[in-house]
Amino acid sequence: MPIISQIGRKALKTRALIGTIYGVLLLGSLTMVYPFMLMVAGSTKSPVDTPDARVIPPFLVNETELYRKYVESLFNEELGAMCQVYESRTPTFRDLPCPSSPNRKLVAEWAAFLNEVTLPKSSFFTADTYSKTGALPLQLRRFKAELGKASGSSLDQFNRDMHTEFTSWNRIYVRANSYLQRSQRFLTTPFQKRFSEFKQGTRQQDRYYVSVEGFFKREYLRTQYSDDIERYNQVHSTAYEGYGRIHLDRICPDAPGRTQEERDDWETFVRTVLNLLWVRVDDHATVPYQHFLKAKYGTLDALNQSHDVSLDSLNEVRLPQKSPESGLAASDWEAFLQGWHDPVTGTAHRMPVESLSIYSVEFTFRDYLAKKWGDISKLNEGCGTTYTSFSAVLPPQQDWHYLDFLTRRGKLRWEFATRNLVTVSEYVLLHGRAIYNTTVYCLLAIVCALVFNPVAAYALSRYKPRSTYKILLFLMMVMAFPPMVTQIPVFLMLRELHLLNTFWALVLPGVANGYSIFLLKGFFDSLPKELYESAELDGAGEIRIFWQFTMALSKPILAVIALQAFNVAYGNFMMALLICQDEKMWTLMPWIYQLQMHSGEGIIYASILIAAIPTFILFVFCQNIIMRGIVVPTEK
C-alpha cells in the first residue's frame, strides 16, 4: 500500500512535498540527460563545428551550417583549396556564407563543358576522400570497399597487388593533393592508378577542379605582396581594386599597358613555383634545348645512355610539349625550364619565355566559351553576366556545388550525422580481434564472478568460521586499495607463470572480488534461517540448498555482481594493456584509446558513445531483476 494515503495527498503541505520531490528528481535527470545529449551531438562534429556546444547539432536545423559542413567535406577540410577554387578570402569554413544568387545559366555552360571536354586526371580531386580528424568520408569508404572486393578482403593480397605496406584496412587513406605546387608529384604507383580510376567513376558534382589562377593569386601574389593590394599597385604601377580583379595570363603578358613587374611575376611563377603538370612549351624552344643537352652531356653517346634512347644526332632531339613523368628526361626538362648554368663556360641555358604557356581548366573553359559564343557580349546576354572579356571568366564551381547541395540536403544530414559513428564501428570491427577478445573476456569474468564469489560468501554466511570477522576485515582492507597498487605484483606473478598475452592473464586477477564477497555475505545473512532448516528436514543436500534456494533467491544481488563484473572487464584498459601487450590479445578499450590518440573531437565522442552501448544493453536486461529485488520476498 502507498506510504501516503489518497486523503493525505490532498493536504497543501503534502502536495508541496510531493512537488518538491518530483522537482528534485527532474533536476537530477536533467543533469544526466544534458551531458549525454551533448555527447550525442558531439559525435557528429567535424572541424567546422567543433567549437559549438549545443544539444542539437546546428547543421540539422540550419541550412547555412549544413552548407559549411558540406563545403568542408567537399574540399577534404583543406581551406586553402576552397579559397583558390572559389576565389574566396574566407578565414575559416565557419565564416563561409551561402551563395546569394547562383547563376544557373553559367552553371549549365560549365556542366556542358565538363561533358564535352576530356580533362586530365590531375585537374580535379574527389570530395569526401580525406579527413584530418581520422573520419572515414563517404568516397573513401566506397574506395576501400572496392579495394576489399577486388582483393577478396585479404589485406596481404591487397598489399601485394598495390605494392603497399598498410598494416590494416583502417590505415588506408588518400591524401588530398592539388598538384599545384612544384614539389607535389603526380604518382604513378599501382595504388595511385587505382585511385585515379576510382576518381573517374565518381559524379562530376563530387569533384572540385583545381584553379591555377586561384593558386597564383593566393599562394604567390599574396605571399609576395601580402594582402594589401595597395602595395601590389605601388610596385606594379597599377590601380586594381583587389586581387579578384587580377587575372592570370596564358602566356607571358607583353601587351601594351602591362608592366615589367607583371611579366617578371608571371615568369617567376611559371619557372619556379607552378607544378610542371600545368606548364607547356612550344617548338620554338627545341633548338635551345638541343644546345642545353649538348652543353650538359657533351657527347651524343652520353645523352643516349642517360635518356635511354638511340639518337643518331642532336638534331633528332625534340623538346616534349609537357614535362615527362619521370627519369632524367623529366629532370632535364625541369632544369631547362628553371635555367641551367654551364659550369665550364658559365653560359645560361633556359626555355625562352615566349615559348612558355600555362595549361589549366580556366583557360580550357574560356576557350570553350569563346568558341561557342564568339563574342563576350553574347555570353553576357545569354547567361546574365557582366564580363568585359573571356579572360575574366572563371568556372562557376561554387554555384555549381551549391545547386547540387540544394538537391542533397537530406542525404548530407544523414551522412554527417552518422559519419563518425560509422568510422568508429568500422575501426572496431576491422581492427584485430577486439570484439572477439572483449566478448570472451567479459563472459569469463561474469561466469567467474557468479561462481567463486557466491561460494566464498555462502561459506562465510552458512558456516560462520571463527575467523569470519578477520576475513571480512581483510576484504574491507582490500577494498581500500585502488587496483593500480596491485598492477605491478600481478604482472610479475603472471610473467613468472608464463600467462601473459592469454585470457587467463585477464581473468585470474579478478576471479575473487572482496567487495562482491562482502556484499553477497550480507545478503545471504538476510535470508530466513527457517528456509535452510526446512530444506534440511526435507533431505536436501548442501549443493541443492546453495543452488536451488540461496542462488535462486539472490538473483537481484547476482545481477548487480554480474553487472559490476562486466563493467570492470569491459572498461579494463590499463591492466589489459599491461598484461596483454600483443595486439592480437587487445580488447576493445586499448583499440579505442589508440583511435582517440590520433582523432578529432567528433571521433572521440562517437567512440565513447559506441563503447557505452554494451553496458547500456546489459543494464536494460538486468534492471527488472534488480528492481524486483529491492524488496526481498519472504516465506509465508
Rg of Cα set: 36 Å
Query: Class by helix and strand content?
Result: mainly alpha
Mean pLDDT: 85
Q: Which regions have little confidence, pLDDT < 50, spanning 5+ residues?
A: 631-636
Q: What fold name stands as the CATH topology of the largest domain?
A: MetI-like fold
Summarize the main sheet.
Answer: 2 strands, antiparallel
Question: Shape, please?
Answer: elongated
- The CATH homologous superfamily name of the largest domain equals MetI-like
* Share of residues in helices: 55-70%
Number of domains: 4
Number of helices in the DSSP assignment: 28
The CATH class of the largest domain, by name, is Mainly Alpha
List the helices and strands and how they pair.
Blueprint: H1 12-42, H2 63-74, H3 79-86, H4 104-116, E1 124-126, H5 138-150, H6 155-162, H7 190-200, E2 207-209, H8 212-225, H9 229-236, H10 260-273, E3 279-281, H11 286-297, H12 300-307, H13 327-338, E4 340-341, E5 348-349, E6 356-358, H14 361-373, H15 376-383, H16 397-407, H17 409-430, H18 434-463, H19 468-480, H20 487-496, H21 503-507, H22 514-526, H23 529-537, H24 542-553, H25 555-570, H26 574-579, H27 588-597, H28 601-628
Antiparallel strand pairs: 1-2, 3-6, 4-5
